[in-house]
Specification:
The chain is 45% helix and 20% strand. The protein is built from twelve helices and eleven strands. It is elongated. About 10% of the residues have low confidence.
Length: 378
């Protein structure tokens, strides 16, 4: 279900009378009888009813507002964590780059000395990248580079790899020099990509794609929907319609996670959609865990003497035996008539006894109660 406030078109601090007036106006304008040519009229009418069902009950409204605040706080925390992780990775890359550039500067400083001392030409040749890795980061880094370079060569299509584990473009950029022994502009231009590739090989991990935040929503589900494992459709705030199946183990407050149905942000992995199931409240049934609770009205004489009666349960009418001397603080349980848990078993149908009086006062009952209060028994 979409945000109930936006469905009814009211503010979040709207009083109860304003919400009720908005519901009546909406329900009247979109009623299916008034919009026979609109195939979606029934769905929109039901959505307005569900929104009003949430907002008219102070407890349900407060629970929805709290859940919305929790979801917003979680979204902010996820964003802060992503920013911290990105900053940490940037700092690690900067350290690797700084250390590498220092070694490159030292190598450049050694070249003129070798050239003027009359040493052979190959003595002034640039240091191979794999030798530099071993000298800076140790033999383990060289071994890790060899493994990752072999993996890169098997996965690459048009870009080849040289024998030292770097791509051919990287190796050429860092080995080619002009006539004076200085690096060409191409080598300087390739420094950024080389450092990024080097960081991935040293850590042995590929770049982690950040995940976009999740979207939270709520769906009102009836007791019959839970029992019959029906399919539930939900229209999101971006007008997308999603559908999911009720499964064993789902109950009031259960959270359904739909992978890849959340926010879609370019360059990021798509987030998830989390849907909180809210059991539809009615005068007849309410859900507690996997048990279904329902009131059982019993007259005073039946509560005292006991009786056989019938009750309209979610799956049809059932016969109930009320024990003698049953009070309003007692319940009657029928096993296996509740919701399905994650093991396929069912909870109980719990009948809460409610003693009710006759519609009109009865003189005999009144006299009996008066005599019992005064200590006189007929």
């Amino acid at each position: 279900m979409r945000d109930p406030y936006s469905v009814l078109g009211v503010k979040r601090d709207a009083p109860a009378d304003e919400i009720k007036a908005a519901w009546r106006s909406k329900a009247k304008s979109i009623h299916p009888d008034q919009n026979r040519d609109d195939p979606n009229a029934s769905q929109r009418f039901a959505e307005v009813g569900q929104a009003y069902d949430v907002l008219k009950d102070p407890k349900k409204r407060d629970r929805y507002d709290q859940a919305r605040k929790v979801a917003a706080q979680k979204h902010r925390e996820q964003t802060i964590m992503q920013q911290r992780e990105a900053a940490r990775e940037a700092a690690e890359r900067a350290k690797v780059a700084e250390k590498l550039m220092e070694e490159l500067a030292k190598a450049e400083a050694r070249k003129p000395q070798g050239a003027t001392s009359g040493k052979p030409a190959d003595a002034t040749a640039p240091e191979a990248p794999e030798d530099m890795l071993e000298r800076i980061f140790g033999a383990q880094a060289r071994q890790q580079q060899a493994k990752t370079s072999a993996s890169d060569s098997s996965n690459s299509g048009t870009t080849g790899t040289s024998g030292n584990g770097t791509t051919s473009e990287e190796a050429q950029a860092y080995s080619e020099t002009d006539g004076s022994g200085d690096k060409t502009p191409a080598a300087i231009a390739a420094a950024g990509s080389f450092i990024t590739s080097l960081f991935k090989r040293l850590t042995g991990t590929s770049q982690v794609i950040e995940k976009a935040p999740d979207i939270t929503a709520e769906a009102t589900v009836t007791v019959s929907d839970f029992l019959e494992k029906k399919s539930v459709s939900l229209t999101l705030s971006d007008e997308r319609e999603v559908r999911f199946q009720i499964e064993p183990g789902m109950t009031d407050g259960h959270i359904v996670r739909l992978k890849g149905q959340g926010l879609k942000i370019p360059g990021m992995q798509r987030g998830d959609l989390t849907i909180t199931l809210l059991a539809a409240r009615s005068d007849n049934f309410r859900i507690n865990g996997y048990d279904i609770h329902t009131p059982l009205s019993v007259s005073l004489q039946d509560a005292v003497l006991g009786c056989e009666t019938t009750l309209q349960a979610p799956e049809g009418e059932i016969s109930v035996t009320v024990p003698a001397w049953s009070g309003s603080d007692q319940t009657i349980r029928i096993p296996g008539k509740g919701l399905y848990d994650d093991k396929g078993e069912r909870g109980d149908l719990v009948m809460e006894i409610r003693i009710v009086l006759l519609e009109k006062p009865d003189e005999k009952v009144t006299d009996l109660m008066r005599h019992m209060r005064q200590g006189l028994y007929l």
